[in-house]
Predict the structure of ABC transporter.
Amino acid sequence: MQAVIKADKLSKHFGHFTAVNEISFEVAPGEIFGFLGANGAGKTTAMRMLCGLSIPTSGTATVAGFDVYKQTEEIKKNIGYMSQKFSLYEDLTVLENIRFYGGIYGLSDRDLQQKSETLITRLNLQNEAKKLVGSLPLGWKQKLSFSVAVLHEPKIVFLDEPTGGVDPVTRRQFWDLIYEVADRGITVFVTTHYMDEAEYCNRVSIMVDGSIEALDTPPKLKQQFSANSMDEVFYELARGAKRSE
Ligand SMILES: Nc1ncnc2c1ncn2[C@@H]1O[C@H](COP(=O)(O)OP(=O)(O)OP(=O)(O)O)[C@@H](O)[C@H]1O
């Protein structure tokens, strides 16, 4: 099957500093691809290049078939992106945020009406629909932010540490949403610091100081590193990192 993300020796330099160093990988349609690395490993920088938000220094990459140098507008139309800083408007209500983003994505009024209802029911936000997003707990904001990022049924959704700062139950609920969109054929590219979440991914890559040091399914990685858990695999690789504090 044709890969939806292809990167070949993709690099990003900031002055003399190499934030991302010749990373190469492919992601298949519908795959949940975990992108791991310690703080400062280069995950966000790599993700921003793949989302068409930052031009690479060298190497090649295509996302949904579009070139990350020349076709950034097409890439943006075909992906969803949930950044560490939410893109939701805190001073708009839940419903207003959904309508606002649906409008940006060019959904018809009918489509938007139907999608807003489905989404609010799915997230159990019936009583919060008319409340300001700023008043919601973090876990709900995360789920809403994710749901909004896939409102236009993109080919790929990029999630940058989507579950930071919430409890394990809330994170598990978030992952139920991830599985639902993956079942619809949307490819999920997700960074996380939580190793239980790494176990939920189909494949996982681990970045150390700008380079991808391992990439495989969680069972195969555990086998490769003679480890009992992804925690151990990660520790084995990341303990040598110079950048993480
Ligand atoms: N615009 C920039 N100018 C200079 N250095 C940068 C810039 N953006 C990122 N860096 C550096 O590149 C390295 C990789 O940063 P990046 O944010 O991609 O890491 P990360 O793996 O996403 O980390 P975190 O988990 O903390 O978000 C860091 O050392 C960071 O300081």
Notes: Residues 14, 17, 19, 37, 39-45, 243 surround adenosine-5'-triphosphate (CB under 6 Å).
